[in-house]
Amino acid sequence: MAGMLGTIEETLRVLRETMDDHRRSLAGESPPPVPAVPAAAPRRPAPRWLAEVGAELERAAGVQMSETIAQKLERVFAGSDDMTVDEWLRRVRRPGSLHPDLQLLIESLTTHETYFFRDLAQLKHLRSAILPRLIEDAKASGRRRIRLWSAGCSTGEEAYSLAVVALLALHEAGEGLIAQGRARPVPGWMVEVLGTDISGRALDIATAGVYGTGALSSFREAPPELLAYFPETADGKSRQVHDDLREIVRFKRFNLIETPLPIADCDVVACRNVLIYLTADSVRRVQAGLHHALRPGGCLLLGPTDSLAEPFRFDSHWIGSGIVHSRRPAA
Ligand SMILES: C[S@@+](CC[C@H](N)C(=O)[O-])C[C@H]1O[C@@H](n2cnc3c(N)ncnc32)[C@H](O)[C@@H]1O
């Protein structure tokens, strides 16, 4: 294995550095100094190993090769040749769960950027129009439960935001109580939120539920009146997720291109700013899963640049700032 990727330890070091850069940016810290960029060299034709690694990334996680990903891979695999990368691929390729080295590579290639109450206009529409209808449906069927899935939740901010919005909507529908600025369901009602991601490291942060504060932090767009769900820590440097949310939000590692799905009968599925990293084929497969996880009438929230691969399965509505998609009852 000598010479391969400058040894696998070297690869892992580069991957860890990339993840550390990301964690620093999440914590609002300054990045380490960027080394001077050498004058641009004429671009060499892409080596065979790059195509092979790209195919493996697509097979394992649906990831679409892009110029940025190719550049990151060239950095990780610097000094390797086709044969040594073949050997690495043979080692990490396996059916079922991802090999830890492949998992680490995927984690370092995808972006984990997220923040609380991202796309506030969409969440406001969820609170004022979509959830009231779904809560009425639940009441009519005697279900008294609202279930939401944040698919590709990264470090958890989206899942916790959905939980807050659902609690508020339930209160506004006359099915909640307010205590210390936080809405809770009346007895007999349940709100359940599942956050899933392919990245175990991102999910560790999500589960810990402690986030830095400051101008560039995850709270940068959080409405001040909702911060009661995220009290400050004793040292005043962070905010932590209140137990009211911890009780209803759980996290699970899940690769969106896999089956079986981790959840069913959802009222709302959010898969925002995830599909942009996937190939068209993978998007189709993933959306079929998201559709399957929704109850008829349930709502799919996508990112601003995402579109539906199979629009006939949904009723889509323009809400001024974007589109929401409801699963057609018979589709
Ligand atoms: C930019 S973040 C989006 C976070 C959040 N949904 C939001 O909009 O703020 C994209 C996330 O998608 C996850 N992801 C990418 N490919 C995935 C896959 N095949 N299965 C599950 N998660 C995936 C990444 O790990 C990353 O955390």
Instruction: Please state the second-level CATH architecture of the largest domain.
Output: 3-Layer(aba) Sandwich
What's the total count of β strands? 11
CATH H-tier superfamily of the largest domain: Vaccinia Virus protein VP39
Shape, per Cα inertia axes: globular
What does this structure look like?
The structure is a single chain. The protein is an alpha/beta fold. Helix content is 40%, strand content 18%. Strand 8 (266-271), helix 10 (280-293) and strand 9 (294-302) form a beta-alpha-beta unit. Helix 1 crosses helix 5, helix 2 runs parallel beside helix 4 (82-92) and helix 6 packs across helix 7 (157-175). The longest helix is centred in the middle third of the chain and has 21 residues, at 120-140. Mean pLDDT is 89; it is low at 1-8. It binds S-adenosylmethionine. S-adenosylmethionine binds at residues 61-62, 110-114, 118, 152-154, 158, 197-199, 202, 255-257, 272-274, 277.
